[in-house]
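Task: encode each sequence below as structure tokens.

Item 1
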Amino acid sequence: MNPDKIKANESFSDGTNSGKESVKRMKQTAPYLFPLLVLLVFTATIVTYSNHFCNSFHFDDDHCIVNNAWIRNLHFIPQYFKTATTFSSLPMNQTYRPMLTVLYALSYHFGGLDVFYYHLPVFIFFLLTGTLIFLVAFKLFNMSSPSDANPYFALFACGWYLLAAANSDTINYISSSSDSISTFFVWFALTLFIYFPERRKWMLYLIPIVIGALFKQTAIVFPAILGAYLVLFEMQPNHIPAAGTNHSILKLFRLLFPSLMLCIILYLLQKELTPPAFVTGGIPFYYYITQPFAALIYFLTFYIPVGISADSGWDALTSMHDSRFWAGVIFLGMISVLFIIYFRRKKYAPAIFGLAFFFIALLPTSLVPLAEATNDHRAFFPNTGLAIASSWLLCLGWQKSGDGKVYKVAAICFTALILSCNAFATYYRNKVWKNEESLWYDVTLKSPDNARGLMNYGRTQLINGNYAAAEEYLLRAAKMAPCYSYVYANLGVLKEREHQDTLAENYFQRAMLYGSNIPVILYTYAVFLHSKGDNGKAIELLRKCINTSPADINSRRLAMRIYLSQKDWIHLGKLAQETLVLLPGDSEAEQDLAAARKGQGQQNSGAPLMQ
């Protein structure tokens, strides 16, 4: 009989005594080594990310932060929890993440649009998550197979997570703080549940899940993660549901029921408060058949972080006959076989848990058909499970080697190589995220057929005044995506700057054909019309834009300038008052309101008295 198989009456230790003993022995044999390694890991993380704190806003940051009036006053915080319309100035992106909007509002309150104040809290949560991963990994390792090496490999799991190049894009992308911070709260809940079993009846471990789900809904997979932990570590093998006893099922259900009910309520709340304008954008069937291959890519990228891109531009698969679909299916099949083989082997429990964590954490973005078939930041949450699984397998090899110095020297060199290579790659990725130009140039190199990448890089060249390059990339994007309204809007701006107004008008009309309900398209065309003196049509577009997206600051400011130039005091005063509700103390709106009142007063003073 395989000695690794758990006997019918065998159960897991809670790891408390073995953990204390291993720490005690560690202090006796090498009192300064472990603290020095902890200091080294966290110092290396801070140094590695030291060049990211001034990286600019990207992607959704524009409509969630830069052009979102709702975050500019803390008085609106209660409103964030009542509706998702405050999350973004772009209606189709308004999803219910009130705690994330609170974080944006606080960052704006202390630093305006200085990106440092947005990066700093994200990085602090990132470091705290690494600490929690160490604590959980250390506990799980000791519960499975006590060893003096466990603290070191738990620290390695923490370091791999913190320095992993596969995680770097999520930390650089401010709007992805929804992923990183919700991940922290899931691990916080798991830490509370594991370390304080006697206080579970108070259900304090559920509080972090509430907060995490209000940052991003992916946190509601916690019951499944908790179930994996309970089955693998706390339930005796003869009580595992697979054994078929009613007692085991009832015990598991009793432990999971509070978190399960809470997450169902959180899901229904999110669904209820998300406005109808929000769209996921994906086609279900095509999206679903793509996800097995996406899981394979995320898995491989964690271990071999090459080709990382802010926008891979991968389209969803269109047929199950595609070889990539079968590659993903084979990958899932192989993982399933590993689960079946090693599920009841006690010493492999942390590795099985880490793999289970990876796939459970992928479920939310795999089941909701999103516009992009894959996106690297979706793997941030799942990757924490891979860090634990991989570190434990290395630790098992260390334990099996006994006094074998060759393996141990090789293991030390291997772990140091992994951390240093990831740190180097992460530091490089931080440079890529420095600004829009560097980011989108990297995308065009890695995904030369990506229309969005080509369009955005062309836009950066347009801003820089490099019109020839801008036109080249924008036309390439138009060829790849003939119905892409943003491309034509930018071509319109380009031709306006080149004083080719007829061509500019044609491009703007085409942009309106494909994006007549997109606020930024309406605003861009209105700017053009205003510059050509067609204020009547411009104000019509701006009114539609403001009605569609009340928090759009740019449209409000342009509309007020037009009303002022037309001496339309009534509409100017009304819009200025509305803007001051959103932006109390805004100097431009206050000046416009004063001008409107003065203008109305002058009109009234010249009118005949009513008899």
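Item 2
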Amino acid sequence: MTPRRFQRPGEHWQGPLVAVGYALAWTGLSEISRPLLDLPAGLRFGALLLAPRRLWPWLIAAEWSAVVLLHVTNLHPAGGMSAMLSMLPRPLVAGLLLLLQRHAPPDATGRPERTARLLLAALVVAVGVSLLNAALTFPVVPLDSGAFLQALARLTLGNFVGIVLVSPLLAVLLSGWPDAARVQALMHDLVLVLLPATTLLLLLLTGHFPLARYALGLSLVVALFFAFRHGWRGASLALSIASLPISLLSAPAAHASATEGQLFLAIAGTSALLLGSSTDALRQTCVSLAVQNARLANVTQRLDQLARQLEGAARRNLQEEEGERKRIAAELHDELGQNLTAIQIRVKIAQTRLESAGLGDVAASINDIVATMRRSVRGLLESLRPAALNEFGLTSALTEGPLRELIRSAGMDYCVAIHGNPRSLDEAMRVTIYRIVQEAATNCVRHARARQFGVRLRVGRRHDECLILLDVRDDGVGLVGSAESPLALGRGLTGMRERVLALGGTFRMTQGSQGLRLRILIRQPHSTA
């Protein structure tokens, strides 16, 4: 057994209440409607479009009841047969909308593509209803080809204009306005623009002016203005108010044919709704882009914070690494160096005894081993903590000392150019620069087969940061000639790049016929200098 669906409170009364309200609205619009504008057709289309399908029978029954009531009370302008025949198109409109909703569902949400489908559906419904009315009235009205086609065109345009004027306005009344600021701007334009334009249009239509036949074009200007300023909602409201003089007066035919008035309103309504929906879509896109830009700005800010945190962590790691190197170098110098010195002294003391025992070669061998160990320890200490950098500073360490001896011992010319004050750099920056030049010089001596090796260091200030530009180059064969030991060279370049990136700098390497070139740019905050 299928369980019974519980209905919400008041749902039983929703259909009758909607029917009563629709009948009253339809009766009021039928009283102010003119052959130029079929406003009840617009109400019928909009109500069937916006209402759920379960309320469609109530709407059709309400309109039939209103037609019968007007006919019984002799308030309907049509005769008995015409009034009864005019009741037949109501189910046709529902059927056409049902068919259109299955293939290209129209709605009144204001999106450009859906507004286009809404206008297309309005045109299809207007043509269908007009053809049915023409077929029903054919036995009653004598057929004249020219008059019949003209009447059919007026009927179709009247239905279409009525739909364009009433259906969007009904959607505005049901959906409301986006925010209070737009409502305030709309009221401002209603007072300053729409009411004076409507008054001017009324004067032009009721007077006998030479250009009165072009007065209907004013409604197009007003509709486009409100569409551009307030979207499709403002366009529908402006169209409804601007069309009141045309709807209430029968005089426009004195200045322009009814078909001209209908064409003006059809063009104005179609253009305004399309422009208004496009304006709303553009504004929505701008709002979405603004939200996305704000999110991207927040993400970028977070990434910048993370980058600064990572840079700070990397800088601390370098400082800790250099501190550990310094500690290890001190331990090696104090412990291993002293022990080697003690061994060498002991060997010298025992050298006379060893020689008398015929073991002089053993003493010489031990001295050679100790000397080799001392040189190895000295090289290890130099790699752990450059003595020249500690004792003389960065400028002297680059221009003199082990680097110059290394380059000159390989038969190459060594050129150094330093601009600025390297003393303003912190310890991590000075050690990084020296390590990069040291590694580049070692690679050049081992693999490049170069004749010249040059270093250019420029230290400058800009705003609150210190800029360091390091340029290292040689005229060797580049990386191609390093096939003897590609792994070591790769590790060296990787170490350089990691050191530079750890300090938030940029590392660029280029090579060509003139050799290998390294260009490093690092920014150091003024506070750390």
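Check on item 2: Confidence is low (pLDDT under 50) at residues 1-9, 78-85, 250-256, 481-489. Residues 295 and 411 are 59 Å apart (CA to CA).
End of task.
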